[in-house]
Amino acid sequence: MGFGTVVKRCREAAGLKQGQLADLVNVARSYVSHVECGRTKCRRDFAERVDHVLNASGKIVEAWDDLLEQIKQVRYPTHFVAFPKAEASADQIRVYETHLVYGLFQTEAYARVVLIDDEALATRMGRQKLLCRQPRPMISVVLEESILYRQIGSKEIMREQLKYLIELSLQEGIFIQIAMTAHFRDARASFCIATLPDRSEVAYIVKATGGEITRDPSDLTRISTVMHTLNAKALNTADSRTLIRKVIAEKWS
Predict the structure, then answer these.
(1) CA separation (Å) from 168 to 173, 179, 218, 241?
(2) Distance between CA atoms of 8 and 214, rounded to whole angstroms?
(3) In which element (H, E) is residue 97 found?
(4) In the β-sheet with 212-214, what is the strand arrangement from edge to edge?
(5) The whole model's pTM is what?
(6) b/e map of 155-185 (b: 16 or more CB within 10 Å)?
(7) If we measure between CA atoms, which residue out of 101, 98, 189, 185 comes closest to residue 139?
(8) Surface-to-core class of residue 197, CB atoms within 10 Å of its CB (0-12 exposed, 13-18 middle, 19+ buried)
(9) DSSP letter (8 states) at residue 57
(10) Which of 143, 171, 216, 240 lies 20 to 30 Å from 105, alpha-carbon distance?
């Protein structure tokens, strides 16, 4: 029995309509519909919330875990294929994003709009297990201000995504800063630097043709310098949260 079918049967057994369940777990009714129809693969925390609300005694969480096990083949774009291994074993990750929310921080609904393909979506959601790892790596992310205003999907999706950024930023070891619209020398494209336990580093740099991975010391020095500049000039984490809340209230509510 598929995950969506389990959710639907448990909801019906509880005597609830989709809209009622959506209100109880604080999502849009359309999101519940998409989950039940198998058009979206939610995060595990959503499955846990639904399981609790419906008193499903773990059935929904178990179905979600079974779904994850069914994803046998993990596929990445060819230009990205070597980076997830470094990311998964890193103890420090530093990121600069110019156009989209950082992949590890994307909600499932936001990622679905960006990726479209189900396998790519499942792969991205799988990468997010890193956030639950103990010990978790220190993650420092600078997002350009325009990301908060760039509509990806519906207003509901954007509101959920930005609220999730606030939640993440309150967790220990996760630092999210917003870089206000400005010129930052050499900050021409998104990048991610993974620092491994042996202190070696790997960087992934986004390019028009897809991107490239580098271990070249000169590249890493240049990128690290840019990151230091961005960290210094971007809003601090508290002020960044304030701005995100402001954007949610003024644009996405």
Answers:
(1) 10, 17, 32, 10
(2) 46
(3) strand 92-97
(4) 174-179, 138-144, 92-97, 191-195, 201-205, 212-214
(5) 0.67
(6) eebbbbbbbbbeebbeeeebbbbbbeeeeee
(7) 101
(8) exposed
(9) T
(10) 216
Please name the helix (run of DSSP H) or strand (run of DSSP E) that holds residue 139, with its range, or none. Answer: strand 138-144
> What does the longest C-alpha to C-alpha distance in the chain come to?
62
| Residue labelled with tokens 């994803």 | 71
Residue located via tokens 């530093």: 94
Question: What are the mean pLDDT values of the chain's consecutive 10-residue runs (253 residues total)?
Answer: 85 91 88 80 84 90 76 44 75 94 94 86 87 90 96 95 96 96 78 89 77 83 91 96 97 94
CA dist 163 and 200 (Å) reads: 34
Helix and strand numbers, DSSP H then E, in the chain: 12, 6
In angstroms, the CA 199 to CA 127 distance is 22
